[in-house]
Amino acid sequence: MNKQLLFVKRPTGVADATTWSLVDSPMPTLKEGEFLIKQHYVSLDPAMRGWMNDSKSYIEPMAIGSVMRAGAVGEIIEVNNNPNFKVGDFVSSYGGVQQYAVANGQGCYKVDPKLAPLPTYIGTLGMPGMTAYFGILEVGKIKAGDVVVVSGAAGAVGSIVGQIAKIKGCTVVGIAGGPEKCKYLLEELGFDAAIDYKNDNVRNRLKEECPKGLDVYFDNVGGEILDIALSRLKMRARIVICGAISQYNNKMAIKGPSNYLSLLVNRATMQGMVVFDWADRYGEAAAAMGTWLSEGKLKSKEAVFEGIENFPETFNRLFSGEKLGKLVLKVIED
Ligand code: NAP
User: Fold this and answer.
1) Residue 177 in contact with ligand 1 by CB distance below 6 A
2) Domain annotation for the chain: domains and CATH numbers
3) From the CA of 292, how far away is ligand 1's center (Å)?
4) What is the pTM for the complete model shown?
C-alpha cells in the first residue's frame, strides 16, 4: 500500500489535522514511459500554506482531494520503458506527500546521494537554495561592501542568503526568532550581527547594526519587520520580496507596508521574485553551491522529522519556528 496525505479542507488561518486525511491507497501501476519513486523525504515549505488557498497565485491552488503538493526526494524502484531514468537513480521532484509517486521525468532532477545527503537536495541544493542564490545575486544584485539584512535568517532560504552575501564580501545582519538561532547565525554561519525579533527592539537594533543604513533587505517575513527595514534604506537600496511568512495564516487581508515612500526618497527598488523563473539556470547555482559546500564556505542544516502521520504538527513548525534549518519529513523507512 501507498500512504498518501490528501488535502481535504481549505484552512482558515492555521492549518490543522482536519486540513488533511492520511489514507492507504493501492500501489500505482505504471504507464509507458513512467517510473515509480520511493520517496524518502518530503520538503515542508511555507509556500504550501499559500497553495491551500483558493486564490490566484503563481501556481494553481490545490484541488480538494488531491495529494498534498510538496517537493520530495527518493529512489526509482521501477521503470516502464523510459530511456532517461533507471532503477536505482535518485531524483528530486514534486511528488507530493506520499510514500510512492509516479513520474514521467518532467520536473525531475537526478541527484547523487554520494555527494550530499538526500535532504540537502530539497534544501540547500534544492528549491530553497536556488531561491537564495538567484534572489540575492540576481534580484538583490549584491556587491562587496554592501550592508545586507535578511529576515527569516536561520531558515532554509535566509541562512543561505546570508552566507552567500558573506562569501561575496558583504556585511550581513540576520533577523531571527530566539537566542539559540541568533547564536547559530553568529557562531556557526559567521554573520556580522544577529537580531532576535522575539526579544529585541528590532528598530533600535537595526539602527545600531546599520548606522548608515542598508543596501539590500532580503525579506522572508513581511509585516512589521519589512516596514522597519524600509525605514533604514540607503540610496538605491534593493528590497527582495521573497516571502511574507508572518502573513500566511492571516484571516484578514494582508496589510501592505506603510513606509513605502522611503522607496521614493531613496530611489530604491522593491522587487518580487519566484524561484521557478530561474529553472533553466538551476544547474549553475547547484554547481556553485556544491563547490562552496565542499570547500566549507557554505553550511547546510536540515531539521529532519519522521513519520508521514506527523505531517500536520511538523508543518506548523514553519510558523512556530520550532526547528533550525530546512524542515524535512522522512515519510518511509529506507
Ligand atoms: P524557513 O525560513 O526555513 O522557515 C520559516 C521560518 O519563518 C521559521 O523557522 C520562523 O523562524 C520564521 N517565522 C515564522 N513565522 C514568523 C513571523 N510571524 N515573523 C517572523 N518570522 C517568522 O522557510 P523557508 O523555506 O526558508 O522560506 C522562507 C521564506 O521564503 C518564506 O516566506 C517562503 O514563502 C519564501 N520563499 C519564497 C520563494 C520564492 O520563490 N519567492 C521560494 C522559497 C521560499 P523564526 O524562528 O526565526 O521565527
Assistant:
1) yes
2) 2-123+301-330 (3.90.180.10), 127-276 (3.40.50.720)
3) 23
4) 0.97
